[in-house]
Each structure stands twice: as C-alpha cells, then as structure tokens.
Amino acid sequence: MHVVFLHGIGDGNRDYDWLDGLNRGLTQAGFDPVDRADVLAPRYADLLKTDGISAKLPAITNKAKDDALARREFERRQARVQRLLRREFGVRAYGFNLIPDPVWNAAPGAVVDYLSMYDLDQVRRYIGNDGLRAAIMLRIINALPDDGEVVLIGHSLGSVIAIDLLDHLPERLHVRRFITIGSPAGIRALHEGSERLLKRFPYSRVDDWSNFLNVRDIVTGGRGLAATFPGAQDFMLTVRGHQADTYLGDPAVAGLIADALYPPAEPTAATGTDIAVRMSEAEASALLVQHFGEALARHIKDTERADRYRATLQILRDDLAAQLAQQAAGGQLLAPELQDLAAGRLPALPHRWELHEAIGELVVLALTNCVTPYEIDTGDAPIKALEDIAEALGFRRDVGKTVATAIKDVQAALSGKSGVPWGRVLTAAAGVALIAAGPVGLAVAAPAGAFGTAAIAGGLAAFGPGGMVGGLAMVSGLAGTGAATTAAALASGHGTAETAPNLDKLMMRVAAEHARKLLDLGYDSRLWYQVTDFESQVSAVINRLEPFNDPKSARVTQLTAAKAAINTLLQFMSANGLAPNAITDGGEP
C-alpha cells in the first residue's frame, strides 16, 4: 500500500521532512518506518508559480447516485476511527472553532490577503483558477496507480487539492485512509466566486476521513472541515504550529496511519480458565436491549427506515464490542455472552429474569430509544416487538401482548387530558435526572448544580461503577427519590427552562404495575403514595410561584401540565385497582 502525500506551498517538501516526522511518530509507537519506495509525493510547486496555464479538468469518476447505504457504512468506519483516537491523550474530537463563526466568516478575507507568511492567496488562486486546478490534478493522477489502495495525506494547500481530487481518482483506486492536516479548506472566503470543492463525497471509495488541526495553526483558524464537508471528522491536537512533520509526528496521527498500514490482529477472548463469569444486571440489560433492537427493526414497516435503524444499532454494537475487547485485553474476565459480543456475535438471551422482573424490563424497552443519540421514527414497532422479546425470555407471547395493552391504557389515559407528550423525557430540575440512555435502558445524571456539571453515564459509556445501568430497577429505585428537593429546585430556578417534573418514570411505573395486575401478579401498592407525594410537591411549587410569575411563564405552564398528568395517573390507578383498598379518588372503592 502506498502513502500518497500532497504538499502545501513551497518547494514541495523535497527533503521529505514530512516523512521524517511520520517515521518518528511510527517508531516511537513501535511500528516500522515507511520506506521512501512506498511513498508517492508528486510535486506541483512549479505550476503554482506559473501564470496562464490552460488545461481541461479530469472527468468526475464518482458517479454513484444513491449513496445512502454507502454513507451509513462510511459512518460506521468513522465511528471506529473515533474510538481509536479517543484513547489518545491530547486529542479532542469534533470541531472546535477558536474564532467564533460570525467573526471568522467576516475575517478570512483579511487573513487571506495579509497572511503572507503562509501565502493563503495561493489556496484561493487554486480554487478560483480552473486551468491551474486541472493541471495540478492531472499531474497527481498520472503519478498514482490505477488500482489498489492508498493512504492519502494532504497538508495545507495539499489538503485542498486532495479534497478536490477525491471524485476524480481512478475508479479502481481505493483510499484506505484519508487524512488532512493544517487544512484551510474550511475558510469560506476561499470558496467565494468559485464552484465549491467536492460537491458529492465518494463514500464507497474512501474508507474514512480524519482532519487534524491545532489552536495555534493560524492557517486553519482553529476551524475544522466538518461544517463544510459532511464526510470530514475533526480532531483537535495539542501540537503547535503548521508544519507537516509536526502534525505527522503526533502519536494520534502516526497511530492512525499505522492502523491502516499495519492492521492490528483481531482480539481474542481470554482462555485457559475454569472460572465461570456471570453477567451483571447492567450487562444483561445491555444484551437485552440489543435483542429488542433487532426485534424492533423487524417490525418497522418502512424498509429504508428499518435499514437505517439496523445500521445505527450496528454502530452501537461495534462500540460495545470495542469496549469489551479492551477490557478483555486488560485481563478482565468476561461472561461467555460478552465474549460473543466482543467478537461481533449476538448471543442468545439467558432466561435469568423472573416474570415479575421481566415485565418491568419490557416496559422500559418499549419506551426507551434503543439507538440514542440517533432518532428514527419506529412507529408502533416497539409495541409489536414486545411479544418477540417475551418469547425470547422464555415466556408466552401473550405476556408481551399484555404489557403492550398496559402501556396503551396508560397512554390513552394521559394523551387526551394532560397535554404532556408520552415518550419525551421530563427531567426534574434537581435531585436526579432520568434520561433515555440508548442500549441499556435508563441512566442517572447528577444535577448540574451538584458536582458542577451534569455528568451523564449513559448508553454505552462504560461497564462497572458509574457506568451502564438498566432495567426497571432504576425506575423503581428512583420513583420515590428526589421529592424533598424537587420543590426547592423548581422554585429556585435550578435547571433550564425546558426542564419539568420527572413524569416519565412515574408513567413507566404505573404501566408496569398495571401490566402485573392484568397478569394476576403482585403489584407495588406503595406506588400510590409515591405519586401522591409527587403531586403534593408540584402543587406546593405552583402555589409559591403563581403570585409572582407571569401568567404564561414556562415554569408555571409546565408545572400545571405536570399536575394535570399526575392527577390523571391517580385516577387511572384508582380505576384499575392500583390504589389502596381504603382509598377512592372520584370513583368507587
């Protein structure tokens, strides 16, 4: 595999200092250096200094029309790159604008005009002169192989040329890894008066694209490329300066290139021990949600939407597998099911949940977005998937049907009266916050005022203490907590204007207990008192705020809607035999 390097302005890096920097980073990380014989570094400095060049732009070879599937696969590969780089010290993922957008959008004209030390006018000249563009691209294309794989690296102006080149490359030439460093391609002023580079990214011909920048590189302005080019993924480094050897010698950049040149061996699970490891509750919940996601996808009616859902589920499963493999490499013993997950296989569900517990899990599954942070409208597929999962757990399919009925009953009671939408997470302004947490059900976040930041341990964050949590045990454990602090928090204004009392967990609790009642199982009679306590707290806050707040204030409006929803829940519980026998609330005892 060749390493292709496209240089910036100057003499075209005739002394190969960029390669010295790369090899320094590779050898420090324990990899073999790249030999010059494996490098393609075409030079075009003479063309940049020549006026009046006339040439015809090479043909666009990227002719894909429907690239939706290719882009989803591309994003899956991008996710893997991010997992690799987030382990590196001093790497910050996603773009970071050192200069705010409004300022940077107005200033680059002056930067381009007066930043003579970097000659950014050469970049603008390249973009605006089709003859020059054509001549440079043709020279580079003629230096490249017609097929095979390459690692493509573009520095400064070379990054702009590399981006421009992507949809003109030979059809059988595949870019195994695309890396841009110190790129000014995100400066909008450079694109004014010319056709934008790379209108359509060739997702099927480029495995991934990582753009590296640093805050002291004025050529980039601290601005990444993702805002301009959807295929780019930005990473901020702590190195200083604009030189190519500085960027390529950074452990993160060198390591990413090494990953392409010297692919790591597939990790193997620990063997040679007779110790049987059982999954924790959190780990079992993670596996359960993976199965539920698969079942849910089967019931999504729209084929394209179902494909997108499966793709997002796979990305999350990749992330989970990577974490498990890392733990195994560190000597941690994994349960057999987790070893399968780490190897990319979805193991069968263990029959470890009793029926009473399983009902709670099913309710949480049906009302949780299993692919957070992605948002895909799945319609009624979660409800339909309940029967499949009930059977997979070792119970009759009608158990899932009964849980679905219970959820629909509570939804119907609330939807027409309270004005509070089901499915949106309503968060208490203090105490604890309950959020949809992707593949493991529900997670807890410390309130913003408790520890200085709302550190959310959600989704696939981590196993172990402070990591993944799931199942209705989380809901039931929280149903009675935070009540003493809720009133003070809501009255004092902690939290954002969008926060509201935590009703979702109460809705889930009521739905779960209703399902247990329908199945003639024991239900928790304490829930009535927890709901009434919450009603009292919310009412107290409304009474304190109403004399002073504007009549249509967001907080009072939310609290009033919450109070109505709580009252509806109490009426529903009373009507469905979930209230203590001695209590009635507008109905018969």
Biggest sheet layout: 7 strands, mixed
Return the average pLDDT rounded to an integer: 78
First-residue to last-residue Cα separation: 79 Å
So what's the CATH class of the domain at 2-261?
Answer: Alpha Beta
Could you tell me the radius of gyration in angstroms?
A: 29 Å
CATH topology of the domain at 2-261: Rossmann fold
Portion of residues within helices: 40-55%
| CATH homologous superfamily classification of the domain at 2-261 | Alpha/Beta hydrolase fold, catalytic domain
Strand content: 5-15%
- Going across the biggest sheet, name each strand in turn: 2-1-4-5-6-7-3
> How many individual helices?
22
How many beta-strand runs?
A: 9
Can you tell me the CATH architecture of the domain at 2-261?
3-Layer(aba) Sandwich
Described by the principal axes of the CA atoms, the overall outline is elongated
What structural category characterises the helix and strand content? alpha/beta
List unreliable stretches of 5+ residues: 95-118, 419-501, 585-589
Quaternary assembly: single chain
In short:
With 589 residues, this protein is an alpha/beta fold. It is 45% helix and 8% strand.
